[in-house]
Amino acid sequence: MISQLLEALRQLFGASLPWIVVPPWCVGVRVRLGRRAARLESGFHFRIPLLDQVQLVSTRTRYVSGQPVTIQGSRPGYARTRCATVSFAVVDPIAALLRFADLVHMMQALATLHSGDAETEAEALVALRAEVEGHGVEVHSFKYSENVEVRAFRLMQQTAGLWVQRDPDEYR
User: Fold this and answer.
1) Over 90: is that where the pLDDT of 20 sits?
2) Residue-by-residue DSSP string for 140-162
3) Same domain (yes/no): 25, 49
4) Within this chain, do residues 90 and 44 fall inside the same structural domain, yes or no?
């Protein structure tokens, strides 16, 4: 009943409410006049309408997957496709907001980057942790959700009854 009343008031008054409720799984970051950032723990907080902006940041562990990456295989004529899943949590929301505009998309991009660069999951985890160190994000794990190596075949095309090999650069 109380939550419905608060939601109705929030919709009615929008950004002019003099309070904010931070859920238990979030941390609020209040910025007053674009100068000072303050951390708001879960609970009920007062704010000055039109002077304070509050952004909620989830502190739960999140999982994101990068895009599949195709790299050279371990043997000539083979290609390897990898896709990685990263779990992370925000430990310092002010530093994370200052560093990353969109944290989820940034972590997806880093998962894609390191899945193509690193040979093993452990190497990728170390590189990923070093990249986000000091920016309010803690990386818990890096796992390959897809790691497949297959034989790659060259494209062939029939021309005037003869099979000819096409130049691979023609398809780029």
Assistant:
1) no
2) EEEEEEEEEEEE----EEEETTE
3) yes
4) no
